[in-house]
Amino acid sequence: MKRSAALPIMLICLGCVWLLKSTALLPNTTTLLALLLFAAGVLLLALDGFNKSTLVSSPLLAYAGGAIYAIDQLGLRTSHFVALGMVLAGVLMLIARSDRVPERREPPRRFPRQPD
């Protein structure tokens, strides 16, 4: 019986992160968080497609990543980004109410096989 590959993969990932951090090649935590949020927004839109849900969540994730980066690296005020984010969220929610924006597709349900 084969054992799970989770532990070796976790060790490889942790070792790579540790090596990058000790050689100062890994960006600081705030920059990494900003990049991950931005990438999550882009990836969500790419994987789930354009629909009412991703019209709001994807740009907001990307905006949050950009705002965190700008606050940390450029020293801009947090309150400005929070206020602008609220306006952006409201505008996106209003646009998502349009009939032209498709509903979210539900993945096909897979029912367990019934015994014969």
Automatic annotation (TrEMBL):
Top-level taxon of origin: Bacteria
Entry's transmembrane regions: 29-47, 54-71, 77-96
Keyword line: Membrane, Transmembrane, Transmembrane helix
Protein name stated in the entry: Uncharacterized protein
Organism of derivation: Chromobacterium amazonense
